[in-house]
Amino acid sequence: MILLVYEDREYLLAPGETLETDLGVLEVPDDVSPGDTVETHLGTAFEARALRGPDLFAHFERTGAPMMPRDIGLVMGHTGVSGGDRVLDAGTGTGVLSAYLARSGASVLTYETDPDFADVARENMAVAGVENAVDVRTGDVTEAIDELCAGEPFDLITLDTRDAPSVVSRAPDLLVSGGFVTAYVPFVEGTRDVVETARSAGFQDIETYETIQRAMDIDERGTRPSTAGVGHTGYLVFARA
After folding, report:
1. What share of the chain is helix, strand, coil (3-state, %, to 5)?
2. pLDDT (tens digit, 9 = 90+) per residue, 78-89?
3. Which helix (H) or strand (E) holds 136?
4. Which of 20, 24, 47, 206 has the least CB density, counted as fewest CB within 10 Å?
5. In sequence order, which ranges of 24-171 are alpha helices (DSSP H)?
6. tRNA (adenine(58)-N(1))-methyltransferase catalytic subunit TRM61 C-terminal domain location, by residue (predicted)?
7. pLDDT tens-digit readout, 100-131
8. Of the candidates 7, 16, 18, 20, which has an alpha carbon nearest to the alpha carbon of residue 46?
9. SS3 of 167, please?
10. Ranges for all domains in the chain classified under CATH 3.10.330.20
């Protein structure tokens, strides 16, 4: 897949694909490469770009509210996930987090209970070019824990599920020594449950963060925090085995 950009227009297309727009018919060459210019039949020039992380967030087909880039950044930064790591993810959803993790070089096994959501996530992994690095399974991770415990341990566990505490309680048997578990939780009550479970399970370095971000408006009048949008997204709990 390649991103075709003209001013504020962006189209995600495959080589050889044709798209009709009000700017003309856009025919993507089979050999298109990032940096190329592709013109419509009316002469409008689009720039071809390779997909980056933020582009995936914008162009994935969504099955719900995906994890925001700022939350994903905290997961990446606080766990140090990198090439060669094995990640167990639960609550795939749109698959944005799984795609980011795979693009960092990790191999990801992710569970999604909704079969339709899982199908969409598999398609999104193909869009991201990481379908060989992400194994999207349909099912409840809590029902697979015994089997997973018998296999190779994981370097990181990421959770975006209501039953996160039940996975955290078993996480020491799933992780390598020094590995991380992190849970993305929408409510304070659930956050406390995860923290208390992590303490009972013997985890160390337990940290909890509320992720808030304020955009800045900068124009000829001056600079100030934006009054638009919602700064809060959720809570992240990190713990280390």
Report:
1. 30, 35, 35
2. 999 999 999 999
3. strand 134-138
4. 20
5. 53-59, 69-79, 96-103, 115-128, 145-149, 164-168
6. 70-219
7. 999 999 999 999 999 999 999 999 999 999 99
8. 7
9. helix
10. 2-50
